[in-house]
Design a protein that fits this description.
With 105 residues, the chain is of the alpha+beta class. The chain has one domain: Alpha-Beta Plaits (2-Layer Sandwich), CATH 3.30.70.120. 32% of the residues lie in helices and 39% in strands. Strands 2-3-1-4 form a four-stranded antiparallel β-sheet. Strand 2 and strand 3 form a beta hairpin. The longest helix is centred in the first third of the chain and has 13 residues. It is elongated and about 45 Å long. It starts with a strand and ends with a helix.
Length: 105
């Protein structure tokens, strides 16, 4: 497992994305949260193919914060079953990765 991660989720409004981003950073669960959007999403829900607009939040965090960040996002997310997925950061500048560690301590 990677020592550092990018964890992403999507929400239905810009305000909800900003709120999740800020709350996770304030809780020390992520060093940063970047809001992107609007993005167009096509997905299957209850057997129907649907399209909608969402905003994505990408968090930079340390691996030992992942479970707590996932719980925080699930507990504070407007969706009943939110997407919360993580990708390992395979490489990065040492100073940047050290910043992630400091920001999540």
């Amino acid at each position: 497992m990677a020592d550092f991660l990018i964890v992403i989720t999507t929400v239905h409004t810009h305000e909800a994305a900003r709120k999740l981003s800020r709350s996770a950073v304030e809780a020390g669960l992520a060093a940063s949260g970047q809001v992107t959007g609007p993005i167009e999403t096509t997905y299957r829900h209850l057997g129907e193919v649907t399209e909608g607009t969402e905003y994505q939040v990408a968090f930079r965090t340390a691996d030992d914060c992942r479970e707590a960040l996932e719980k925080h996002l699930a507990d504070n997310h407007p969706y009943d079953s939110p997407e919360v997925i993580a990708f390992g950061i395979d490489a990065g500048r040492a100073e940047y990765l050290e910043w992630i560690t400091r920001a999540t301590r």
